[in-house]
Design brief:
By secondary structure, this protein is α/β, with parallel strands linked by helices. The chain folds into two domains: 7-148 and 318-330, Aspartate/ornithine carbamoyltransferase (Rossmann fold, 3-Layer(aba) Sandwich), CATH 3.40.50; 152-314, Rossmann fold. The protein is built from 13 helices and eleven strands. It has helices at 12-27, 33-36, 51-62, 95-105, 120-124, 127-135, 150-164, 186-197, 214-227, 237-241, 261-270, 301-304, 311-330, and strands spanning 40-45, 66-71, 79-80, 93-94, 108-112, 140-142, 171-176, 201-205, 231-234, 246-250, 286-288. A five-stranded parallel sheet has the order 9-8-7-10-11. It has a four-stranded parallel sheet with strand order 2-1-5-6, with helices on both faces. Helix 1 crosses helix 7 (150-164) and helix 8 (186-197) runs parallel beside helix 9. The structure holds phosphoric acid mono(formamide)ester (CP). Phosphoric acid mono(formamide)ester (CP) binds at residues 49-52, 144, 152, 290-292. The site of phosphoric acid mono(formamide)ester has 9 residues, from helix 3.
Length: 332
């Protein structure tokens, strides 16, 4: 049984095949009805969502299936995932029971659980989703975990391919941007994995101290080496943005400021000139962001409203790529 936890669990050829399947579903050249019809997806959210929840429900309903949504600590019990703890606090149920029980009710399980942003080593272990995977008896889908958002990454790959044609050899720039609070690194990780897997040159621009996960960077470097493309990391945003075929913007927190909100806030303020505007964009570049986006903090109104901005297309493609992933998992 295969899960969908990390893009790194699949090789770029398999990911490219999923993008092809998603394009066929979107165009109506194929249907996922045979795979999804009458099947049930159970989604467990530890964190809020607009796109992820709705696009998964839509994918299941469009192809004759059904989706159940549980919000941990809201309409479902708070869940413990650590082994061997005395559960005398807030957590009423353990993942060891919850994961196999939910597996019995449906055909697929999906979990969203953000990084805690307290300890980078703890986040890198992705312990909550790994615990669900250990005890699930049906395929498990990562709807964004501490380390990756592979559903977003695959939708981003599809969007680049739709807009630019063959992405191989094109220039993908990921730019950090300021925010009002520290955010996880899952989206930037998946964005660069998708770009590397698609055969693009990858440049990552962030201020000093905002380094991404070393294991993810190693995987990106390996995929770029296989594709004959280059990976660069720079602290000079302006120097790289205007040459990009794709400018992908995302905020994330600095690990050195975890547990130090005033220092993080000061760092965001000091780098307020990293907010992306139309002057960052080349004439034919694509502007991408996973959404939700804070206007005039992360990206300006003018840039988000520009014809080069494809954020709504990215969000739509979540539906089609997830339908392709579900189809693949259900077909074994
Ligand atoms: N991009 C994304 O995952 O959106 P939501 O957080 O709204 O699901």
């Amino acid at each position: 049984m295969r899960h969908w936890l990390s893009m790194g669990d699949y090789d770029p050829a398999e990911l490219a095949a999923l993008v092809r399947d998603a394009c066929a579903l979107k165009s109506g050249r194929s249907s996922a009805q045979d795979a999804i019809g009458d099947r049930i997806l159970t989604m467990v959210f530890f964190n809020p969502s607009l796109r992820t929840r709705t696009s998964f429900e839509s994918a299941m309903l469009r192809f004759g299936g059904h989706a159940i949504c549980l919000n941990v600590g809201g309409d479902a019990w708070k869940l413990e995932h650590r082994d061997g703890v005395v559960m005398d606090g807030d957590f009423a149920e353990h993942v060891r029971e919850a994961s196999p029980v939910l597996s019995r009710y449906g055909d697929l399980l999906a979990v969203r659980t953000f990084a805690r942003l307290h300890d980078a080593r703890e986040d890198a272990q992705d312990a909550v989703i790994r615990s669900f995977a250990q005890y699930a008896t049906v395929p498990l889908i990562n709807m964004e975990s501490a380390v990756e958002h592979p559903c977003q990454g695959l939708a981003d790959w599809m969007t680049v391919q739709e807009k630019l044609g063959d992405p191989r050899g094109k220039r993908f720039v990921l730019s950090w941007a300021p925010h009002v609070k520290p955010l996880p690194m899952a989206v930037p990780h998946s964005a660069i994995l998708a770009a590397a897997g698609a055969g693009m040159h990858v440049t990552i621009a962030h201020p000093p101290g905002y380094d991404l996960n070393a294991g993810v960077l190693d995987r990106v470097s390996a995929w770029c080496a296989d594709a004959g493309t280059q990976v660069d990391v720079t602290t000079e945003q302006r120097a790289v943005c205007r040459d990009a075929d794709v400018l992908y913007v995302k905020s994330w927190g600095a690990t050195q400021h975890y547990n130090d909100a005033p220092a993080q806030t000061e760092s965001f303020a000091r780098h307020s000139d990293w907010t992306v505007g139309t002057d960052h964009l080349g004439r034919n570049a694509l502007l991408m962001h996973c959404l939700p986006v804070r206007r005039n903090v992360v990206i300006t109104d003018a840039a988000l409203d520009d014809t080069r901005c494809v954020v709504v297309d990215q969000a739509e493609n979540r539906l089609w790529t997830q339908a392709a992933i579900i189809q693949r998992l259900l077909n074994g």
